[in-house]
Records
---
Amino acid sequence: ITLKESGPTLARPKESLTLTCTFSGFSLSTSGVGVGWIRQPPGKALEWLALIYWNEDKRYNPSLKRRLTITKDTSKNQVVLTMTNLDPVDTATYFCARTIPMTWDHWGQGSLFTVSS
Amino acid sequence: QSALTQPASVSGSPGQSITISCTGTSSDVGAFNYVSWYQQHPGKVPNLLIYDVNKRPSGVSNRFSASKSGDTASLTISGLQAEDDADYYCSSYTRSSTWVFGGGTRLTVL
Protein backbone atom coordinates (compact mmCIF):
# COMPACT_ATOMS: atom_id res chain seq x y z
CA ILE A 1 0.00 0.00 0.00
CA THR A 2 1.36 3.40 -0.99
CA LEU A 3 0.04 6.93 -0.99
CA LYS A 4 1.72 9.95 -2.54
CA GLU A 5 0.84 13.62 -2.36
CA SER A 6 1.34 16.00 -5.25
CA GLY A 7 0.64 19.63 -5.85
CA PRO A 8 2.20 23.07 -5.77
CA THR A 9 4.88 23.96 -3.26
CA LEU A 10 4.13 27.67 -3.02
CA ALA A 11 1.12 29.96 -3.18
CA ARG A 12 0.29 33.54 -2.22
CA PRO A 13 -2.17 34.61 0.49
CA LYS A 14 -5.82 34.60 -0.61
CA GLU A 15 -5.11 32.02 -3.31
CA SER A 16 -6.36 28.42 -3.34
CA LEU A 17 -4.50 25.13 -3.00
CA THR A 18 -5.31 21.86 -4.73
CA LEU A 19 -3.51 18.76 -3.51
CA THR A 20 -3.83 15.31 -5.04
CA CYS A 21 -3.30 12.02 -3.26
CA THR A 22 -2.59 9.11 -5.59
CA PHE A 23 -2.68 5.72 -3.95
CA SER A 24 -2.18 2.06 -4.79
CA GLY A 25 -2.58 -1.29 -3.10
CA PHE A 26 -6.17 -0.76 -2.02
CA SER A 27 -9.46 0.45 -3.45
CA LEU A 28 -11.57 3.36 -2.29
CA SER A 29 -14.62 1.41 -3.36
CA THR A 30 -14.08 -1.13 -0.57
CA SER A 31 -16.56 -0.82 2.28
CA GLY A 32 -15.14 0.93 5.32
CA VAL A 33 -12.12 2.46 3.61
CA GLY A 34 -11.43 6.17 3.61
CA VAL A 35 -8.66 8.54 2.57
CA GLY A 36 -8.01 11.79 4.33
CA TRP A 37 -5.63 14.67 4.83
CA ILE A 38 -3.59 15.65 7.85
CA ARG A 39 -1.16 18.57 8.02
CA GLN A 40 1.77 19.54 10.19
CA PRO A 41 3.14 23.09 10.34
CA PRO A 42 6.91 23.22 10.74
CA GLY A 43 7.83 22.17 14.28
CA LYS A 44 4.21 21.78 15.31
CA ALA A 45 1.61 19.08 15.87
CA LEU A 46 -0.49 17.07 13.47
CA GLU A 47 -3.88 18.49 12.55
CA TRP A 48 -6.62 16.47 10.88
CA LEU A 49 -8.26 18.26 7.93
CA ALA A 50 -10.71 16.10 6.00
CA LEU A 51 -11.75 12.58 5.07
CA ILE A 52 -13.75 10.94 2.30
CA TYR A 53 -15.13 7.43 2.65
CA TRP A 54 -15.74 4.74 0.06
CA ASN A 55 -19.44 5.71 -0.01
CA GLU A 56 -18.79 9.43 -0.70
CA ASP A 57 -19.44 10.39 2.91
CA LYS A 58 -17.24 13.41 3.67
CA ARG A 59 -16.02 14.79 6.98
CA TYR A 60 -14.22 18.06 7.68
CA ASN A 61 -12.38 19.67 10.55
CA PRO A 62 -15.05 22.05 11.91
CA SER A 63 -12.62 24.95 12.22
CA LEU A 64 -11.64 24.69 8.53
CA LYS A 65 -14.82 23.36 7.01
CA ARG A 66 -15.73 26.56 5.13
CA ARG A 67 -12.40 26.48 3.29
CA LEU A 68 -12.06 22.77 2.46
CA THR A 69 -13.45 20.49 -0.23
CA ILE A 70 -12.51 16.84 -0.61
CA THR A 71 -13.36 14.69 -3.60
CA LYS A 72 -12.37 11.32 -4.98
CA ASP A 73 -11.89 9.67 -8.35
CA THR A 74 -12.10 5.96 -7.64
CA SER A 75 -11.16 4.97 -11.19
CA LYS A 76 -7.90 6.93 -10.93
CA ASN A 77 -7.21 5.97 -7.29
CA GLN A 78 -7.02 9.64 -6.36
CA VAL A 79 -8.34 11.93 -3.65
CA VAL A 80 -8.20 15.68 -4.10
CA LEU A 81 -8.22 18.33 -1.38
CA THR A 82 -8.94 21.97 -2.15
CA MET A 83 -8.29 24.71 0.38
CA THR A 84 -9.36 28.27 -0.32
CA ASN A 85 -8.37 31.70 1.02
CA LEU A 86 -4.87 30.69 2.01
CA ASP A 87 -2.95 32.35 4.83
CA PRO A 88 0.69 32.01 5.86
CA VAL A 89 -0.48 29.90 8.83
CA ASP A 90 -1.47 27.25 6.28
CA THR A 91 2.21 26.64 5.62
CA ALA A 92 2.73 22.99 6.51
CA THR A 93 3.58 19.50 5.35
CA TYR A 94 0.38 17.98 4.05
CA PHE A 95 -0.03 14.21 4.42
CA CYS A 96 -2.67 12.00 2.90
CA ALA A 97 -3.45 8.78 4.71
CA ARG A 98 -5.74 5.79 4.56
CA THR A 99 -8.23 5.06 7.28
CA ILE A 100 -9.76 1.71 7.98
CA PRO A 101 -12.12 2.00 10.88
CA MET A 102 -10.92 3.61 12.99
CA THR A 103 -7.28 4.51 12.56
CA TRP A 104 -4.85 5.98 10.05
CA ASP A 105 -2.74 3.01 9.08
CA HIS A 106 -0.83 4.10 5.97
CA TRP A 107 0.53 7.55 5.26
CA GLY A 108 2.03 9.29 2.27
CA GLN A 109 5.49 10.81 2.44
CA GLY A 110 4.07 14.31 2.84
CA SER A 111 4.26 17.42 0.70
CA LEU A 112 5.61 20.71 2.04
CA PHE A 113 3.48 23.67 1.03
CA THR A 114 4.33 27.30 1.75
CA VAL A 115 2.06 30.33 1.72
CA SER A 116 4.01 33.53 1.26
CA SER A 117 3.67 36.81 -0.54
CA GLN B 1 -12.86 20.73 18.53
CA SER B 2 -9.80 21.13 20.71
CA ALA B 3 -6.59 19.17 20.38
CA LEU B 4 -6.08 16.36 22.84
CA THR B 5 -3.73 17.26 25.67
CA GLN B 6 -0.35 15.58 25.87
CA PRO B 7 2.73 16.49 27.92
CA ALA B 8 5.14 18.50 25.79
CA SER B 9 8.07 16.31 26.72
CA VAL B 10 9.11 13.23 28.65
CA SER B 11 12.46 11.60 29.10
CA GLY B 12 13.94 8.36 30.31
CA SER B 13 17.13 6.36 30.35
CA PRO B 14 17.73 3.24 28.28
CA GLY B 15 16.00 0.24 29.82
CA GLN B 16 13.52 2.31 31.77
CA SER B 17 9.77 2.62 31.15
CA ILE B 18 7.89 5.81 30.43
CA THR B 19 4.22 6.69 30.05
CA ILE B 20 2.68 9.41 27.89
CA SER B 21 -0.82 10.59 28.67
CA CYS B 22 -3.44 11.87 26.26
CA THR B 23 -6.40 13.67 27.78
CA GLY B 24 -9.56 14.45 25.88
CA THR B 25 -13.22 14.71 26.71
CA SER B 26 -16.34 12.59 26.81
CA SER B 27 -16.87 13.61 23.18
CA ASP B 28 -13.69 12.03 21.90
CA VAL B 29 -11.33 9.85 23.97
CA GLY B 30 -14.08 8.98 26.45
CA ALA B 31 -16.69 8.32 23.80
CA PHE B 32 -15.26 5.36 21.88
CA ASN B 33 -12.41 2.88 21.98
CA TYR B 34 -10.90 4.51 18.92
CA VAL B 35 -7.65 5.98 20.25
CA SER B 36 -4.50 5.56 18.20
CA TRP B 37 -0.85 6.38 18.85
CA TYR B 38 1.79 7.36 16.29
CA GLN B 39 5.56 7.64 16.43
CA GLN B 40 7.28 10.26 14.29
CA HIS B 41 11.01 10.64 13.94
CA PRO B 42 12.25 14.08 12.83
CA GLY B 43 11.52 14.69 9.18
CA LYS B 44 9.75 11.37 8.82
CA VAL B 45 6.21 10.13 8.31
CA PRO B 46 4.08 9.25 11.35
CA ASN B 47 4.04 5.51 12.00
CA LEU B 48 1.06 3.76 13.57
CA LEU B 49 1.97 2.14 16.89
CA ILE B 50 -1.37 1.44 18.55
CA TYR B 51 -4.99 1.45 17.36
CA ASP B 52 -8.34 0.82 19.04
CA VAL B 53 -6.82 1.89 22.40
CA ASN B 54 -4.51 -1.08 22.89
CA LYS B 55 -4.00 -3.08 19.68
CA ARG B 56 -0.60 -3.27 17.99
CA PRO B 57 -0.28 -3.57 14.21
CA SER B 58 1.84 -6.39 12.92
CA GLY B 59 5.51 -5.56 13.26
CA VAL B 60 5.24 -3.15 16.17
CA SER B 61 7.33 -4.14 19.17
CA ASN B 62 5.51 -5.43 22.25
CA ARG B 63 7.52 -2.87 24.22
CA PHE B 64 4.73 -0.50 23.22
CA SER B 65 1.47 -0.87 25.13
CA ALA B 66 -1.49 1.39 25.76
CA SER B 67 -4.68 1.73 27.75
CA LYS B 68 -7.54 4.10 28.43
CA SER B 69 -9.43 5.18 31.51
CA GLY B 70 -12.30 7.58 31.12
CA ASP B 71 -11.23 10.56 29.05
CA THR B 72 -7.49 9.80 29.30
CA ALA B 73 -5.48 7.38 27.20
CA SER B 74 -1.92 6.35 27.96
CA LEU B 75 1.00 4.95 25.97
CA THR B 76 3.71 3.04 27.83
CA ILE B 77 7.09 2.25 26.34
CA SER B 78 9.07 -0.31 28.29
CA GLY B 79 12.75 -1.13 27.97
CA LEU B 80 13.54 2.24 26.41
CA GLN B 81 15.95 2.14 23.49
CA ALA B 82 17.81 4.93 21.71
CA GLU B 83 15.61 4.41 18.62
CA ASP B 84 12.53 5.34 20.67
CA ASP B 85 13.76 8.94 20.74
CA ALA B 86 10.96 10.59 18.70
CA ASP B 87 7.71 12.50 18.83
CA TYR B 88 4.54 10.69 19.82
CA TYR B 89 0.98 11.67 18.93
CA CYS B 90 -2.36 10.34 20.05
CA SER B 91 -5.53 10.66 18.01
CA SER B 92 -9.18 9.92 18.62
CA TYR B 93 -12.38 9.57 16.69
CA THR B 94 -15.07 11.93 17.98
CA ARG B 95 -18.82 11.94 18.50
CA SER B 96 -19.04 14.39 15.57
CA SER B 97 -17.57 11.69 13.30
CA THR B 98 -14.38 13.71 12.94
CA TRP B 99 -10.83 13.17 14.09
CA VAL B 100 -8.64 15.01 16.55
CA PHE B 101 -4.93 14.70 17.29
CA GLY B 102 -2.96 15.45 20.40
CA GLY B 103 -0.40 18.22 20.66
CA GLY B 104 2.45 15.72 20.58
CA THR B 105 5.04 14.60 23.12
CA ARG B 106 8.79 14.73 22.56
CA LEU B 107 10.46 11.67 24.06
CA THR B 108 14.14 12.06 24.83
CA VAL B 109 16.14 8.95 25.60
CA LEU B 110 18.93 10.15 27.84
Note: Chain B has a mean pLDDT of 97.
---
Amino acid sequence: EAGVVQSPRYKIIEKKQPVAFWCNPISGHNTLYWYRQNLGQGPELLIRYENEEAVDDSQLPKDRFSAERLKGVDSTLKIQPAELGDSAVYLCASSSGGIPPFFGQGTRLTVV
Amino acid sequence: AQSVAQPEDQVNVAEGNPLTVKCTYSVSGNPYLFWYVQYPNRGLQFLLKYITGDNLVKGSYGFEAEFNKSQTSFHLKKPSALVSDSALYFCAVRPEYSNYQLIWGAGTKLIIKP
Protein backbone atom coordinates (compact mmCIF):
# COMPACT_ATOMS: atom_id res chain seq x y z
CA GLU A 1 0.00 0.00 0.00
CA ALA A 2 1.36 3.38 -0.96
CA GLY A 3 1.78 5.84 1.86
CA VAL A 4 1.05 9.53 2.04
CA VAL A 5 2.95 11.28 -0.73
CA GLN A 6 4.09 14.88 -0.45
CA SER A 7 5.92 17.16 -2.81
CA PRO A 8 8.24 18.88 -3.02
CA ARG A 9 10.54 17.43 -0.33
CA TYR A 10 12.46 20.67 0.02
CA LYS A 11 11.72 24.26 -0.92
CA ILE A 12 13.79 27.41 -0.51
CA ILE A 13 12.12 30.71 -1.27
CA GLU A 14 12.68 34.37 -0.56
CA LYS A 15 10.39 36.10 1.88
CA LYS A 16 7.24 37.61 0.41
CA GLN A 17 7.15 34.96 -2.31
CA PRO A 18 4.30 32.44 -2.59
CA VAL A 19 4.77 28.71 -2.08
CA ALA A 20 2.54 25.67 -2.42
CA PHE A 21 2.74 22.15 -1.07
CA TRP A 22 0.94 19.12 -2.43
CA CYS A 23 -0.30 16.00 -0.69
CA ASN A 24 -1.77 12.74 -1.94
CA PRO A 25 -3.24 10.77 0.98
CA ILE A 26 -3.53 7.03 1.38
CA SER A 27 -6.25 5.67 -0.88
CA GLY A 28 -9.58 5.50 0.90
CA HIS A 29 -8.60 7.81 3.75
CA ASN A 30 -11.29 10.44 4.03
CA THR A 31 -9.55 12.47 6.74
CA LEU A 32 -6.59 14.62 5.74
CA TYR A 33 -4.46 16.77 8.02
CA TRP A 34 -1.86 19.45 7.47
CA TYR A 35 0.61 19.94 10.31
CA ARG A 36 3.53 22.29 10.80
CA GLN A 37 6.56 21.10 12.72
CA ASN A 38 9.22 23.47 13.96
CA LEU A 39 12.66 22.23 14.84
CA GLY A 40 12.72 20.43 18.16
CA GLN A 41 8.96 20.49 18.58
CA GLY A 42 6.02 18.25 18.03
CA PRO A 43 3.70 18.86 15.09
CA GLU A 44 0.92 21.42 15.37
CA LEU A 45 -2.29 21.00 13.45
CA LEU A 46 -3.06 23.63 10.82
CA ILE A 47 -6.18 22.19 9.20
CA ARG A 48 -8.20 19.00 9.04
CA TYR A 49 -10.43 17.88 6.19
CA GLU A 50 -13.23 15.37 6.16
CA ASN A 51 -13.50 14.55 2.48
CA GLU A 52 -13.56 17.96 0.79
CA GLU A 53 -14.79 19.90 3.82
CA ALA A 54 -12.43 21.76 6.10
CA VAL A 55 -13.84 20.86 9.52
CA ASP A 56 -11.09 22.30 11.71
CA ASP A 57 -9.05 25.26 10.50
CA SER A 58 -8.90 27.14 13.76
CA GLN A 59 -5.08 27.08 13.84
CA LEU A 60 -4.58 28.11 10.22
CA PRO A 61 -3.25 31.67 9.87
CA LYS A 62 -5.85 32.72 7.38
CA ASP A 63 -4.26 36.01 6.43
CA ARG A 64 -1.52 34.22 4.49
CA PHE A 65 -2.31 30.50 4.52
CA SER A 66 -4.91 28.74 2.43
CA ALA A 67 -5.70 25.13 1.68
CA GLU A 68 -7.98 23.17 -0.54
CA ARG A 69 -8.96 19.60 -1.08
CA LEU A 70 -10.86 19.40 -4.29
CA LYS A 71 -12.77 16.16 -4.89
CA GLY A 72 -11.83 15.00 -1.42
CA VAL A 73 -8.54 13.38 -2.39
CA ASP A 74 -5.40 15.44 -3.06
CA SER A 75 -4.78 18.60 -1.14
CA THR A 76 -2.66 21.71 -1.51
CA LEU A 77 -1.46 24.11 1.15
CA LYS A 78 -0.42 27.58 0.08
CA ILE A 79 1.41 30.41 1.78
CA GLN A 80 1.27 33.87 0.27
CA PRO A 81 3.32 35.82 1.07
CA ALA A 82 5.84 33.72 2.98
CA GLU A 83 7.59 35.14 6.04
CA LEU A 84 10.86 34.14 7.66
CA GLY A 85 8.95 32.58 10.56
CA ASP A 86 7.21 30.18 8.20
CA SER A 87 10.38 28.12 7.87
CA ALA A 88 9.41 24.68 9.13
CA VAL A 89 8.52 21.18 7.98
CA TYR A 90 4.98 20.90 6.66
CA LEU A 91 3.53 17.47 7.19
CA CYS A 92 0.49 15.95 5.56
CA ALA A 93 -1.26 13.01 7.19
CA SER A 94 -4.35 10.94 6.51
CA SER A 95 -6.57 8.54 8.36
CA SER A 96 -9.76 6.57 8.01
CA GLY A 97 -12.33 6.46 10.79
CA GLY A 98 -10.28 8.50 13.24
CA ILE A 99 -6.69 8.27 14.36
CA PRO A 100 -3.87 7.42 14.38
CA PRO A 101 -2.98 9.43 11.29
CA PHE A 102 -0.30 8.22 8.90
CA PHE A 103 2.21 10.84 7.85
CA GLY A 104 4.00 11.73 4.67
CA GLN A 105 7.70 12.57 4.59
CA GLY A 106 7.02 16.26 4.79
CA THR A 107 8.16 19.35 2.93
CA ARG A 108 11.00 21.29 4.50
CA LEU A 109 10.45 24.97 3.78
CA THR A 110 13.24 27.50 4.19
CA VAL A 111 12.36 31.16 3.80
CA VAL A 112 15.37 33.42 3.30
CA ALA B 1 -4.62 22.99 30.19
CA GLN B 2 -4.15 19.59 28.66
CA SER B 3 -0.56 18.67 27.93
CA VAL B 4 1.92 15.93 27.19
CA ALA B 5 5.39 15.99 28.69
CA GLN B 6 8.49 14.21 27.55
CA PRO B 7 10.86 15.19 30.34
CA GLU B 8 14.08 14.21 28.60
CA ASP B 9 15.26 16.10 25.54
CA GLN B 10 17.79 13.36 24.85
CA VAL B 11 18.39 9.80 25.99
CA ASN B 12 21.71 8.03 25.46
CA VAL B 13 21.88 4.26 25.60
CA ALA B 14 24.57 1.75 24.72
CA GLU B 15 23.69 -0.78 22.05
CA GLY B 16 22.28 -3.96 23.55
CA ASN B 17 21.07 -2.25 26.71
CA PRO B 18 17.40 -1.70 27.52
CA LEU B 19 15.96 1.70 26.74
CA THR B 20 13.14 3.77 28.16
CA VAL B 21 11.72 7.00 26.75
CA LYS B 22 9.38 8.69 29.18
CA CYS B 23 6.00 10.29 28.59
CA THR B 24 3.50 11.70 31.05
CA TYR B 25 0.24 13.42 30.28
CA SER B 26 -2.33 15.70 31.79
CA VAL B 27 -5.56 14.95 29.95
CA SER B 28 -8.97 14.38 31.46
CA GLY B 29 -10.92 11.18 31.08
CA ASN B 30 -9.61 8.05 29.42
CA PRO B 31 -7.36 9.14 26.58
CA TYR B 32 -5.85 7.11 23.79
CA LEU B 33 -2.05 7.13 23.81
CA PHE B 34 0.40 6.87 20.93
CA TRP B 35 4.08 6.74 20.13
CA TYR B 36 5.57 7.90 16.85
CA VAL B 37 9.17 7.79 15.62
CA GLN B 38 10.82 10.25 13.26
CA TYR B 39 14.05 9.36 11.48
CA PRO B 40 16.18 12.16 9.96
CA ASN B 41 14.50 13.79 6.99
CA ARG B 42 11.55 11.45 7.28
CA GLY B 43 7.95 11.83 8.30
CA LEU B 44 6.47 10.55 11.52
CA GLN B 45 5.94 6.80 11.67
CA PHE B 46 3.33 5.25 13.93
CA LEU B 47 4.85 2.81 16.45
CA LEU B 48 2.08 1.73 18.80
CA LYS B 49 -1.07 2.77 20.63
CA TYR B 50 -2.95 2.12 23.83
CA ILE B 51 -6.71 2.27 23.82
CA THR B 52 -7.87 -0.14 26.50
CA GLY B 53 -7.02 -3.51 27.97
CA ASP B 54 -3.57 -4.83 28.82
CA ASN B 55 -1.33 -2.08 30.14
CA LEU B 56 1.63 -3.37 28.14
CA VAL B 57 1.25 -2.84 24.42
CA LYS B 58 3.59 -4.08 21.73
CA GLY B 59 4.40 -2.24 18.55
CA SER B 60 6.72 -2.08 15.59
CA TYR B 61 10.47 -2.76 15.60
CA GLY B 62 10.38 -4.55 18.96
CA PHE B 63 9.13 -1.56 20.91
CA GLU B 64 6.57 -1.75 23.67
CA ALA B 65 4.98 0.75 25.98
CA GLU B 66 3.56 0.53 29.45
CA PHE B 67 0.45 2.46 30.42
CA ASN B 68 0.18 3.49 34.07
CA LYS B 69 -3.11 5.19 34.84
CA SER B 70 -2.27 6.25 38.39
CA GLN B 71 0.93 7.91 37.26
CA THR B 72 -0.59 9.12 33.97
CA SER B 73 2.42 7.79 32.13
CA PHE B 74 3.01 5.91 28.91
CA HIS B 75 6.73 5.09 28.74
CA LEU B 76 8.24 3.58 25.62
CA LYS B 77 10.59 0.63 26.13
CA LYS B 78 12.75 -1.83 24.29
CA PRO B 79 14.67 -4.69 25.91
CA SER B 80 17.77 -4.40 23.70
CA ALA B 81 18.58 -1.22 21.81
CA LEU B 82 19.94 -1.14 18.28
CA VAL B 83 22.01 1.63 16.73
CA SER B 84 19.28 1.90 14.10
CA ASP B 85 16.80 2.89 16.83
CA SER B 86 18.49 6.29 16.99
CA ALA B 87 15.78 8.77 16.09
CA LEU B 88 13.34 11.31 17.48
CA TYR B 89 10.42 9.86 19.43
CA PHE B 90 7.11 11.59 20.02
CA CYS B 91 4.36 10.75 22.46
CA ALA B 92 0.83 11.86 21.56
CA VAL B 93 -2.47 11.73 23.39
CA ARG B 94 -6.02 11.83 22.11
CA PRO B 95 -8.51 13.26 24.58
CA GLU B 96 -11.52 11.11 25.29
CA TYR B 97 -13.93 13.68 23.86
CA SER B 98 -12.26 13.94 20.47
CA ASN B 99 -11.90 11.51 17.61
CA TYR B 100 -9.26 13.57 15.91
CA GLN B 101 -7.37 15.89 18.19
CA LEU B 102 -3.84 14.84 19.14
CA ILE B 103 -1.81 16.57 21.81
CA TRP B 104 1.88 16.09 21.16
CA GLY B 105 4.93 15.99 23.35
CA ALA B 106 8.01 17.95 22.30
CA GLY B 107 9.94 14.83 21.39
CA THR B 108 12.93 12.95 22.80
CA LYS B 109 16.07 12.36 20.82
CA LEU B 110 17.26 8.80 21.33
CA ILE B 111 20.93 8.10 20.66
CA ILE B 112 22.15 4.52 20.66
CA LYS B 113 25.91 4.22 20.85
CA PRO B 114 27.76 1.16 19.48
Note: Residues 43 and 86 of chain B are 15 Å apart (CA to CA).
